[in-house]
From TrEMBL:
Top-level division of the source organism's lineage: Bacteria
Family: Belongs to the outer membrane factor (OMF) (TC 1.B.17) family.
Gene3D superfamilies given in the database record: Outer membrane efflux proteins (OEP)
Protein name, per record: Transporter
Main location: membrane
Membrane among keywords: yes
Cellular localisation: Cell outer membrane
Parts forming coiled coils: 32-64
Organism expressing this protein natively: Chryseobacterium formosense
One Pfam family recorded for the sequence: OEP
Amino acid sequence: MNRKRITAKKLKIGVAAAFMMLASSSAYAQQQISLQEAIKQALQNKAEAKKAALQIKKAEYKIDEARSGALPQIGATAGVTYNPVIQESLLEFGGERIRAQLGQAWQSQAVVTLNQTIFDQRVFTGLKAAKSTREFYVLNAQLTNEQIIENVATAYYQVFVQEENLKTLNVSYTNTEKVRNVIKSLVDNGLAKGIDLDRTNVQLTNISSSRQQLVNAVELSKNSLKFYMGIPIDTEIELEEKTIEPQPQLLAETVNLEGRSELKVLQKNRELLVFNKKATEAYLYPTVALQANYGWAGMGKKFPLTNGLNNGVLWSDYSAIGLNINIPIFTGGSTKSKIAQAEIDIQDLDQDIQNTQLQLSLEYKNAVTNIENSLINIESMKNNVTLAEKVQKDTQSNYQYGLATLTEVLDSENALTDAKQNYTTALLDYKQAEIKLIKAKGELNTLQNP
């Protein structure tokens, strides 16, 4: 009888020791990806970033197009005309009437023309607007990049936290599996009840089910991250080994909401609408343009390109220079109506700017509140993990000396697992709140730096 007690006691000590052992495993070393590397690849690969860069390039050509309106416009024309029937005219000379053909069967000419705008308010306004258009697309590209950075950072930490939860469940599964094996040995030797083995197997099955759900969740989250990074979904990735460190100092920093890209884009858009109004007003201004041409013409009864004066074909040059002034006097009120419409567009955008300012202010206040709550929750969950670890160790010790049941041991293991998962979830909530706060401060680009 004493021998059985000693053997059971030793086996219980083995069970307790098994709970405190951590499993070690070797995994295939994949290239680790940091948050900064993920953001870098996203900005290089994502279609949104590429399209925003193309818009900037397109704006450069718009500037060239607008500039061309202020430069000389030079063109050349040439042609040959054959008149099989020449119209006759009636001429009077000293009371006599004469029927005469005014023209020749063949006519040929080559002309070079030049047009130079001297004053046109629309051209000058268009050039300014084109430069602002480029600035608009630059700001829009910056806003697009910030949205990409936010999506990548959110997806990255989603994967990070789920992998941490998976690690916690793997440890719990390994510990429980070792205990199950010890209890099975006890049952096989008639030193433990079968119900204890059944209870442990149920616990192991539950952990396995939860672990498989997390494995699937990690895979889905990685697929989302790869999508935001703009890389093939079948690419194998592994996150960089790193811990999440809360940064309470973010709350102490000042913020300038006017620096947000959302507002800058709207304000630049307003500037473009102002230029649009000025371009419409330019129709009320006169325009001045210089025109000049120089030509060489030949006409006669024979094909002019191969004949000269000896064969009845006369070649001569000609030129003209003129100044054209166009003064709008009355357009029926259409220009005035277009100006009024352009002004309404500006006022409409002003409402959007005002609403966006309120929205950004709300986002910042909410982000600050969420950070404060997340910091409190992290501290609480951290203390809870410490307490759960103490309870687990005490329960294992009590079980070793026969002062606790197997159910209590398994419950303490469950409580520790839940506490660790709640802690990692609190860290995820914090990182999401941190990203929102950094965005609210207009500093998402800082996430690109290590």
